[in-house]
Amino acid sequence: MKSLPGYADATRETFIYKYSKKRLGIISQDSRWSDGSKQRAYFTVAKWLTINHPNLKVIDQYRERGVALKEQREMEEGENVLDAKEIENMKPRSYF
Predict the structure, then answer these.
(1) Top-confidence residue, 90 or 34
(2) By CB atoms within 10 Å of each CB, which of 42, 47, 50, 87 scores lowest?
């Protein structure tokens, strides 16, 4: 099996755990990712680590960065409400 440079000893089962601190920096520095993608990545890794390695201190860093991005996006985008066209085209549950 071919591995990525710098991750030679990683396996599918240990990748997130072994490289959790390195991934924290990679996610934040990748300019190709949107803030929403970064937010989902932070929360996904935090959830996986919480389930599989609940005593790691890096989990709080993932959560904090995810929450910060969530709050930033909410400030930029405003509250997600239905516009007039969405309300007009809304169907009752019985329709489906």
Answers:
(1) 34
(2) 87
In this structure, are residues 64 and 46 in contact, taking their beta carbons and an 8 Å threshold?
Answer: no
Q: What is the DSSP string of 32-45?
A: TS-HHHHHHHHHHH
Say if CB 54 and CB 63 are below 8 A apart.
no
Q: What is the helix (H) or strand (E) element at residue 82, kind and residue range?
A: none
64's tokens: 């904090």
Q: Which 3 state secondary structure label does DSSP give 22? A: helix
With beta carbons less than 8 A apart as the criterion, state whether 7 and 15 touch.
Answer: yes
**Separation CA 28–CA 85 (nearest Å):** 36
Decide if pLDDT at 68 tops 60.
Answer: yes
Structure tokens at 41: 């990545």
Which residue's structure tokens are 């959830």? 47
